[in-house]
Design a protein that fits this description.
The complex is a heterodimer of chains A (165) and B (123).
Chain A (H helix, E strand, L loop, with lengths): L15 H54 L3 E9 L2 E7 L8 E6 L4 E5 L8 E2 L4 E9 L3 E9 L5 E9 L3
Antiparallel strand pairs in A: 1-2, 2-3, 3-4, 4-5, 6-7, 7-8
Chain B lengths: L1 H47 L18 E5 L2 E13 L10 E12 L2 E11 L2
Antiparallel strand pairs in B: 1-2, 2-3, 3-4
The chains are: A alpha+beta (165), B alpha+beta (123).
Amino acid sequence: MVAVTEPASRERGLTLTEVAVVMILGTLIMAGLVGFYLSSQNVWLDSSTQVITQREASLVASAIRDSVRKSGRAEVASVPDPLHQQLALFHRDEPEPYFYFWWNAADSLIYSGTTVGGAGSGPMVGSHAQRFQFSASAVAVRMDMRLLTAVGDGVDMSAYAVFKN
Amino acid sequence: MEALTAATVAVIAVLGLAYSFGMGRGLVDRYEVARAALGEAQSQLEALTLVQSSDPVLAIGYVAPLTPFRYEGVTRGGQNWRVVAYDEPNLPGNANLKRVRVIVRWQQDTRQDSLTLERLWLP
């Protein structure tokens, strides 16, 4: 009797070692790719929220600038605190303010309206404000604010407007 | 061989995606400062409306000294304005208006950026 064996060249398939090596390498590559992708996605998310907040900051600055130009004078009150102030706008020679901008401590949003907290008032944008400050002179108002993005980054914006009315 | 090709394609795709995200982030940062620079220029022009048109700082040919442009507490560059003559063809005479040009220049990383905002003034 002679033992018959298949020649080595006709063997097929993968050894356990080969499969293990391929799986380990594949796992490492996939882990790297997924980690890289997730960090890139975070960058994209940060960018998107920052763009939204920048636009909102521009919108608030523009609205305040337009309102100041329509006014004759302004009064600033440190309500509720010096970092978050309230601006009251007056027509010239009128004793009562006709429009307000203020920061609401309950939700940290910037509000505007004809009365503080009354009907016809509401938040201007969805970004929370960390700082909302004014300085008013006899001829102009300067506004400085810092809005926070959804991930907590700050966006600074300032505006200067002259009374035209 | 197929696995290697697929892995290469996947790596290139992910790298490309990551690069585009990074580029987007860089542009957002760039325009954040540009937006602040626009606010600075608008404020400067607004402040100049308080000045009498006959004031020397609004005389044709005047070039204002450079003042710092600050954003988030850091000096990013400088801004100034210059006044040049402007000829509006629908108005009588020549050089019948003044053009006030506010220029804000700043540096971000290695990139030099600038922004110009103009407004016409009655002489």
